[in-house]
Amino acid sequence: MAAQTGEVAGDATVLGGAVLQEVGAAMASPTQTKTGALDRHANAHDASHFLLIPQAVAVPSNAGEVANLMRVSAARGLPLTLRSGGTSLSGQAVSGGLLVDVRKNFRAIDVFDGGARVRVQPGVTVRELNARLVRFGRKFGPDPASEAACTIGGVVANNSSGMACGTTDNAYRTLESLTLVLPSGTVIDTGAPDASARLRNLEPQLFKGLGELAERVRSNSASRATIERQFAMKNTMGYGLNALLDFDDPLDILAHLVIGSEGTLGFVAEAVFRTVPRLAHATSGLLVFKNLEAANTALPALVDSGAATVELMDALSLKVGQGLSQVPGIVRDLAVDQHAALLVEYQSGTIEELVDLNIKAVALAGSLGLDEPAEFSTDAKVRAELWHLRKGLYTSVAGARPQGTTALLEDVVVPVPALARTCLELNTLFNKYSYANSVIFGHAKDGNIHFMLTDKFASEDELGRYSAFTEDMVDVVLGEGGSLKAEHGTGRVMAPFVRRQYGDELYQVMRRIKELFDPAGMLNPGVILDQDPLAHLRHIKAAPPEVDPEVDRCVSCGYCEPVCPSKNLTLTPRQRIVTLRDMETARRAGNTELADALAKDYEYAGVDTCAVDGMCQTACPVDINTGTLVKHLRTKDAGKVESAVWGTAAKHWGAVAQGAGLALGVAAKVPSGVVQPVNRLGRKILGEDTLPLYSKELPAGGKARRRPAPAGEAEAVYFPACVNVMFGPAGEGSAGVQASFEQLCAAAGVHLLVPEDISEACCGTPWSSKGMAAGLADMHAKTLKLLRAATRDGALDVICDASSCTEGLLHTIESEVLAPGQKPLRVVDAVAFTAQKLLPLLGGEWERLESLALHPTCSSARMGLNPALVQVAEAVADAVQVPNNWGCCGFAGDRGMLHPELTESATAAQAAEVAAMGAVGHASCNRTCELGMTRATGEDYRHVLELLADAVSGKVPVTGA
After folding, report:
1. Which of 113, 341, 803, 910 could bridge across to 859 with cysteines, CB 3.0–4.6 Å?
2. Strands 716-719 and 752-753
3. Residues 901-940, buried b or exposed e (16+ Cβ, 10 A)?
């Protein structure tokens, strides 16, 4: 029965009527069903080159609700697609029907048997899972390059592999059991003792049919031979037919067929995996060859030497790599011609074994006819640069594509001996079809390569060219005995070619598998199996319009999403960008109804609840800071009155900061029942994004920053943050970070100069975050003038005691136009100064706290300050714990007071983890972040330097008592 889907709202059909009611009734709350234009467009985009706009988005909270949604889907003929991380590249996570978000509420991890086994839900990223396993010396088998953002749900759905896991440690091989929701609504835990009997009783046709298919394949020698040959390589083309040979019990066949089924057979609500040893020691080197053929010729020797990974990069990949923010020296200095490179890594469990491996690796590299001398390194920083080059390659290459084009990534595998020939044949096709700048890179050890095409893929000629290229490429890969998909999944892009790769008989077996699991055919239709020979040419994402120079290079990879504080509240950075693009596309097309519908909700979801913390930039392979985009939007939206107010504030900042502190001091003395109703009324009148919300945990104001001139020769200029004037210290008797830092310096015999007019100066962050450009320029000029005088024109370092303000001062300095020969100002955070200068002078003979929960900040992460922060924390406490769920607290200056729901959402998981720690002390390195974590946990968070000063002066409570 076809779904009754309701009215059209300008861009796509919106779910409505009885079907919408049934979808809503399948879950506990009406808020779990979203049909607004912004929700549908924000969730429509994944990392692939396909785009479909869902009719509705559902956010179930448990497996039972997913089962209910599947029943509605089957009964109503409503296509249903499961979506987790959205990093898939073949179109398997886009939907024109009901899109079901299984990331947000499926985040549990349970570790068993000392880390040897783990039960995990689909919304957990690979990086999160490995962070939980690291203390056990174990890791998850699959190791995809997108591990920071891809989720277990996608890894299971695609049978993803990666750099080192090959075909031995992938999800298929390491699976122990899973909990599966079938399209009928039946839920089966394959690890339960009665699971086989339960499957036979509840799904008799499925149970019987799987057994019959296994017998059909085993009795056909040609089918057996094809399956054995295909699955000896990495292979995610079609269904995992090797399950029909590898297992006898229909229950085990079912569990392993689901691996790599791309959400077309059921929903894996959780899975239990056997983990693999984490080899803690590694040495890595980049081997540069004259050309691709020379690199591929060296492969057998490298594979035989026991290399854990051998990653191929062609000449264009190396050229793009030269433009990255972290470039290995060997790449930066290379005059790239026809070169190719292999990133080779050896791993071991012991230092002694690694030394031996390193010696052998260098010797082998010297025999391979390299174009540049090779160096292997065990240094973490050097290795990180090499892997940053490789892991960010797809998104970096795609980000460098010509403006107005779409990037399309293919993923093939051939037997290793045929790899060099295949690469040459692909280059011939690139030239034949005029695909300039097409890169080749990938997992050479496995014969698995990726290549990228860039074009508009819009006109009849462009689609015809792509179609002809694809036909020829399919002939090349299959002619070499390869597979058209190695690890990215069949998706929509290769669905029309499954029959060609496997032949009619095995294609019919796959169709029968789909019929047995999903008789209604509503689970992710068009993915894996599609008899339309032109299916891969449909629903290709249009080239995005220009919306802002900061984000126009975004390729929607989704790497930014896990670190975004608003990801569970409103939008992620990727979603902010794609919905802004869709808004602009609608405007250009004259679709004002859609543009207005998107804009209506974008102000709150896209602008007001963005913390502009810049954490997205730390995860983005093409260095995009979506916070910069939002600042630009705030600048455009700033009214004349608001701009004038902030301009005046810049001219009289001392009075403003002191006044804010006094106001909080008064409020602290008045019962909150008196203050809060008046405050809420003011917010209602003036707007929630204008007047902050007062809450009872906010402290009274702090003390003035001014200090007398030092008695001795100043070693540095001290720039105390004005935020500590507005918000006083936490807890009874605490002196605050300025007094604490001064106390530490005095104990170490270090003299500091606080500029005389410090009360009027600021790092500029309040103006920057609100998009107040004129006020920001005024404050920059005032602060630079003050610092030039205080530092004797750059002779002394500037020290700041709040990490976000340190970062703000760095931006202030970046704005300065230097005179010829003038030294740039240098800024150091007080934490780094303490770690480098004060701790060696202080000696370390003091009582320490028993335990400390430490909250790094966005700015400390962005500035690379966290190692120093941990070092200082370890001088405070015997045990220092940074929560696995650490992230931006979302307080973001006053953002957490304007929109407290942002901080509540951002800190929920971390707060629960902190509560379970039961730490004696709680610390951070920025006052507003301390306020955010205090609100989230109910514990007093203080600056780590306050706790250090207490320890040095003998005020530390050694135990929780």
Report:
1. 803
2. parallel
3. ebbbbbbebbbebbeebebbbbbbbbbbbbbbbbbbbebb
